[in-house]
Task: structure prediction
Amino acid sequence: MSKYNFRIRQKNSIMSLCEYKKKNFYNEDSDAILEAKLYKHLGNGLPVINNLNDLIKELRLIFECDSVNVELVSFLMKSYKSNPVDWKKYAKFDRYRYTRNLVDKGNDRYNLMILCWGEGHGSAIHDHANAHCFMKMLQGSLEEIRFAWPQQEGEELKETKRTRLNLNDVCYINDSLGLHRVENASNVDTAISLHLYCPPFNKCSIFNKNTGQKSTVTTTFYSIYGKRNKENKETDQPEDN
Result:
């Protein structure tokens, strides 16, 4: 195949992805059902993800469109099988709290990051600033606890769902699905997760479980592309994931 023909095929593939995004909706289908749906709508085969670099390349390709294909991004995240060789340089831990470590900015259309959770570390209950949030387990396990939005001031947040995420599991949330908190419930094992946020954001809201009171925090990176972010101060690190 000539380079010209390859570019034409690649362009057509991007167009079909954009068209499919208009039909997109999210549900917790099995991997087989999800794959069948994508084959049906895309009709030109699905990407093969062998390593983290493959995942980043495919994400950059599909995010050339203005809309988000939640099912396809979920499929790509599921297709990548965790390999420490790929991500260990990004895995930076802090003794006192979980860390957010930037892996890729995705041409400013998304942020892909690795979160490192020490024993017992957890996030505050938070929203996602009208962004899409995809989360995949790379090591260990985490518990995701979801809450309904408070209906009135002073109302205690109502827990709606609790899910344990193990190696290579993927979950998705946006603000229409509620709020959540993520925690490493283990007192002996650390955990590492891969997160994608689209569009990127640097502020979000956190909530008091007992009163529903909301406050705004600034999100920061503990490290950027594997190097410690010197501008980030531990005291400014927000409890958000």
In short: The first strand starts at residue 99 and ends at 104. Residues 18 and 86 are 29 Å apart (CA to CA).
